[in-house]
Amino acid sequence: MANITIPPHPLLLAPMEDVTDIGFRMLCKRFGASMVYTEFVSAEALVRSVKSTVSKLTISDDERPVGIQIYGRDTASMVEAAKIVEEVKPDVIDLNFGCPVKKVAGKGAGAGMLQNIPLMLEITREVVKAVKLPVTVKTRLGWDSNSLIIPTLAEQLQDCGIKALTIHGRTRAQMYTGQADWTLIGEIKRNPRIHIPIIGNGDITTPEEAKRAFDEYGVDAVMIGRATFGRPWIFKEINDYLDGKEPDPVMTFKWKLDILEEQLRINVERIGEYRGILHTRRHLAASPIFKGIPNFRQTRIAMLRANTVDELLDIMRSVNPEQL
After folding, report:
1. Which segments in the chain show pLDDT lower than 50?
2. Quick check: is 28 catalytic?
3. In angstroms, rounded to a whole number, what is the distance separating the alpha carbons of residues 224 and 202?
């Protein structure tokens, strides 16, 4: 992908709203993410210089290669936003044509573009022409099971000049339910007319699933999303497995808890105690390290109700891993 150097089996951190802030991206990078992406950015809000949106463009050289993803529903604002993003000098500008949530797709942006392919292609062409940075796209299989248009769409997007294509193996109608279907992703990768990298996304939660994605479907990279919640070390787990290494004995419950504590402190330092705790809660709620602990429900509720760092740390440290 342009001048970006990535390893043989690249693992990418997916762009996720309220998740992939700079602190979390740096943690994932430390544990072996080959490339990271910012939270997605509204083109219209960026053009209007909305402060909270502009703040999402903050990137660090230590996290490179890093992509900034934008979404919108009209060509002019997407082109203008891409030009603004280019000034920040990310390694890639990614166009989001895959977000399924109602407030985005319902207004015609994100996965809503799957119902207006001519506009999607126009936006892609014009953004590619407007900037010098590599432009990539993330999208889904189609709007629903009756319109699995991705095999044709992949070629059309490639013709627009994009440098890579990420495909989430679900339709918009599926949202995040059911199982991701990788068969069409593999079909596109095997298409002799496709010469850009194909990145697979959807349901990669274990090292075994990542290996299968590379081995069976031949993708050039795997993008990991929700499985990173409360588990930034998943990249190390997968990389070690792909390299034929045994699980690292250093990665104990205590080691993982220390990482979550570090994540909490990073967030609090960055955005203050109240918001930092809120920002960390979803990771604590989703972290697999607490699964299997008997009668953990009340402890989880207490963690999610904690209002101060000291209170939250006391609750986290009270968990006894020997119960596992």
Report:
1. none
2. no
3. 7
